[in-house]
């Protein structure tokens, strides 16, 4: 059997890896439009801050490693069209501008997504950058040490925008962070958390221009000099656009069924509307455990999981994509936070009636001094007030307690209730935590609240 895999990021890599694990003698052709396979954009901040020294190390595998396992790796070659009836694809070799057809028995598309460009004047000015992929990583690294770059404006205050703002703040630049929403990280955290993080960002020379809409990028001599919003104008030697992504699927129109937003429609086996063609990653939706509905949740974990499910089904197994909770985490200077499932701020958008409790505690008993690592911890638990089902949670501290969200993610997927969580068994040792885990404490408080 011949399998063609298009795209080498998380979903594509996991598909190839999954096939090799089950049937290593499968003929695999793996295509990457760029000249570098399996770059991890989620590791870009570590490179930009110098934690990882070599940009070429921010990857899953090299072509040489994969070829040694029998995979035919093609870089700088783009699959431009598909003929489902003939089971062929057209490949454009970007090195010599030639094209050819390749036959497949099974085809897996990890088309991914590209940074969304803000539709305003000035987007083509020099020093208007994105933050996705190896090429942008190299360019951004140069700007962190460029003495002519003093004012950096980041558009978009989600995960990538926060990472960009922190990178350039640590590089000694003045950073302006613009977002149309009223709070940074508003889609990931409720206000109890973002109030703390907003102060932290301001303390690190990051100006929050939230609740503002970008109207134009202004420039002189072809280079950006300012970003104008509906409320102000901000001097800018460098602009980084992080205002979302869009699926890289224009080339699939008319071949596969797409949503109105360009996402590839897949079933629970990752199969598309055409036989023997599968799709995984950021250009698809995943089943969301709290609601059972499908959502676009662009996370590496989801793409890897989809890739493994696709590999299983390509090889003849019958495996469905499990529902996910949308768990994610990030560090913002000294703070570490994580969230999963539904939050108070996303409940209405998901069509769910929810209630939440917010608790604060310390990570260890009071007798343990701060110097020994004892830190304040914030935790918010969201649940269905009718049947007590756990829907999601958020946690934050200057100590890394983010792994608690893995337990809540499992609770969401297992449809556990407050009654289950209130007295669930978690270990206690004063060097690590409290006798009652903060998850127990929150569930107990929620039950007390509902009993009133």
TrEMBL record:
<feature type="domain" description="FAD/NAD(P)-binding">
    <location>
        <begin position="1"/>
        <end position="307"/>
    </location>
</feature>
<dbReference type="InterPro" id="IPR023753">
    <property type="entry name" value="FAD/NAD-binding_dom"/>
</dbReference>
<protein>
    <submittedName>
        <fullName>NADH peroxidase</fullName>
        <ecNumber>1.11.1.1</ecNumber>
    </submittedName>
</protein>
<feature type="domain" description="Pyridine nucleotide-disulphide oxidoreductase dimerisation">
    <location>
        <begin position="331"/>
        <end position="433"/>
    </location>
</feature>
<keyword id="KW-0285">Flavoprotein</keyword>
<dbReference type="InterPro" id="IPR016156">
    <property type="entry name" value="FAD/NAD-linked_Rdtase_dimer_sf"/>
</dbReference>
<dbReference type="InterPro" id="IPR004099">
    <property type="entry name" value="Pyr_nucl-diS_OxRdtase_dimer"/>
</dbReference>
<keyword id="KW-0558">Oxidation</keyword>
<dbReference type="InterPro" id="IPR050260">
    <property type="entry name" value="FAD-bd_OxRdtase"/>
</dbReference>
<keyword id="KW-0274">FAD</keyword>
<comment type="similarity">
    <text>Belongs to the class-III pyridine nucleotide-disulfide oxidoreductase family.</text>
</comment>
<keyword id="KW-0575">Peroxidase</keyword>
<keyword id="KW-0676">Redox-active center</keyword>
<keyword id="KW-0560">Oxidoreductase</keyword>
<dbReference type="Pfam" id="PF02852">
    <property type="entry name" value="Pyr_redox_dim"/>
</dbReference>
<dbReference type="GO" id="GO:0016692">
    <property type="term" value="F:NADH peroxidase activity"/>
</dbReference>
<dbReference type="Pfam" id="PF07992">
    <property type="entry name" value="Pyr_redox_2"/>
</dbReference>
<dbReference type="InterPro" id="IPR036188">
    <property type="entry name" value="FAD/NAD-bd_sf"/>
</dbReference>
